[in-house]
Amino acid sequence: MTRNLRLHSHASGTMHATTLVLGAGHAGLAMSRCLADLSIDHVVLERGEVANSWRTERWDSLRLLTPNWQSRLPGYSYKGNDPDGFRDMPETVRFLEGYAEASGAPLETHTTVTSVRQRGDAFGYEVETDRGNWTARTIVIATGPCNVPSVPALAEALPAEIEQVTPNRYRNPEQLLEGGVLVVGASATGIQLAEEIHRSGRPVTLAVGGHVRLPRVYRGRDIEWWMERVGVMDETLEEIDNVDRARNVPSPQLVGSDDRRTLDLNCLSALGVELVGRLAGVRDGKAQFAGSLANQAASSDLKMNRLLDRIDKWVEEHEPNEVPGPRERFEPTRVPVSPRLKLDLTSGEIRSVIWATGFRPDHSWLNVPVFDHKGRIRHDAGVVEAPGLYLLGMPFLRRRKSSFIDGAGNDARELSAHLAAYLADWTKLAS
């Protein structure tokens, strides 16, 4: 692809591209490559640099949860000498920068989109940015699902002296106040931060809600290898009973490390992290925890064992003599007999709260009537309910791995094909 698409402009100075891709993360870059393969002229608009969120909104020690070999994008994949390792954030940024360069992606960086509207003739879109305006026949929204931390409303009831931190602003324990820390949320982010902060010498209490427990390695293979091999990650919308629930499954309790260790609630409690139930409220300076910790742990253990049963069945049917490790089962999650239900946040025991409660997308700039009653974009597997508008990179968009680096390629190929067909139909109507 050439990079001279800014020359496509109206007399008014408004620039034009057939397609605008919003976001230059892994999903936007995958779509750019697929559009280039279809000879569809396009421009990728990015508010910062390539992989902006990876470089500016991650903590210092974070590594990818997926092994290096699983970083596969259209026409590009990991070529290093550590396929079973886990990249840190600078390495991830370099990987995506290399992809953008190899693909010749037509980038407009440091360009913040402030408004997207349908054109008055109802064909195409007008896009306003802080560096000029565009028109486009089609738009691909690839800005990702993790733009704004999902902090519960009860955060407003915390005492003023409690420091509140979200994962996109957390870098390392040294930035926190000395003293105890309450980590709210026990998915991948919550357990990693709980461990790191506890090892820094600060007492940690972990409020545990719904979570997905997984071993890092099972029967000698990485759990991601197994989930790909048995078909879990390629499951499509048609194979799922409850799509909304599948799209809101917490990220699994995994950590990327050189020793491929498992990190779960048992590991944390062995270190001395205190486990309590889900944070249910804050009243008069006291945190209130639900009494469901044992049930949450038992439910997660049950689901993990169902997955392991599925793997074992696959081994028996396909590779009974080739798997190096034997069938395994893991100790049930240990929880306190009587976890505390209240914690006085005014006593000085807790100085900081980390909200590891997930993220939500920010589509406040999208001025097109495509939102449901919960503020989510209405779409059918990424085809938005507005002509020529597409969504990419969201959880379980078309298949279970949609939001992963490895999942963006398949979705981008399918959606770019749909986009090309839409443009062809429009051209026939216009002529």
Main attributes of the structure:
20% strand, 431 residues, seven-stranded mixed sheet, 9 helices, alpha/beta, five-stranded parallel sheet, 27% helix, 23 strands, disordered N terminus, globular
Shape: globular
Cα gyration radius (Å): 23 Å
How far do the termini sit from each other? 27 Å
- What's the mean pLDDT score? 94
Helix percent reads 25-40%
Helix count, DSSP H or I runs of 4 or more residues: 9
- Specify the biggest β-sheet: 7 strands, mixed
Q: What fraction of residues sit in β-strands?
A: 15-25%
**Contiguous uncertain segments of 5+ residues:** 1-7
> Using DSSP, what is the number of strands?
23
Structural class: alpha/beta
Question: How are the secondary structure elements laid out?
Answer:
Blueprint: E1 15-22, H1 26-37, E2 42-45, H2 52-56, E3 72-73, E4 76-77, H3 89-103, E5 107-108, E6 113-118, E7 125-129, E8 132-141, E9 148-149, E10 163-165, E11 180-184, H4 188-199, E12 204-207, E13 217-218, E14 221-222, H5 223-229, H6 243-247, H7 265-271, E15 274-276, E16 279-283, E17 286-289, H8 293-318, E18 342-344, E19 350-355, E20 359-360, E21 379-380, E22 383-384, E23 389-391, H9 405-430
Parallel strand pairs: 1-2, 1-8, 2-5, 8-23, 10-19, 11-12, 11-19, 12-15
Antiparallel strand pairs: 3-4, 6-7, 7-8, 9-20, 13-14, 16-17, 17-18, 21-22
